From TrEMBL:
PROSITE patterns: HTH_LYTTR. It comes from Lactiplantibacillus pentosus (Lactobacillus pentosus). This is LytTR family transcriptional regulator. Pfam families: LytTR (PF04397). Residues 1-75 form the HTH LytTR-type domain. GO terms for molecular function: DNA binding. The lineage of its organism: Bacteria, Bacillati, Bacillota, Bacilli, Lactobacillales.
Amino acid sequence: MNHTRLNFSKRTVTAKLSEIVVANPSFIRVHRSFAVNVPNIEMMDRSLQMLMMNNGDQIPVARRMLAEVGAIIRSFNAGEGGVIGVQ
């Protein structure tokens, strides 16, 4: 059974990646091995297929997920969430 460990500033969670995404609406799966918390995205680079996170991490985006992730970022930017850059 595959489990994912998430480290937060105050706690650590161990669960399947799919369970984490379902239980936390602000998380999106962007790759087979990666999910991100949308408010922590700084920028999306379509040409590199990468997300730059506010902690400096670079997360790959699956080619088949680029359009969906872009749409989620546009939706987030249209709301009160903030501004995420897209290149």
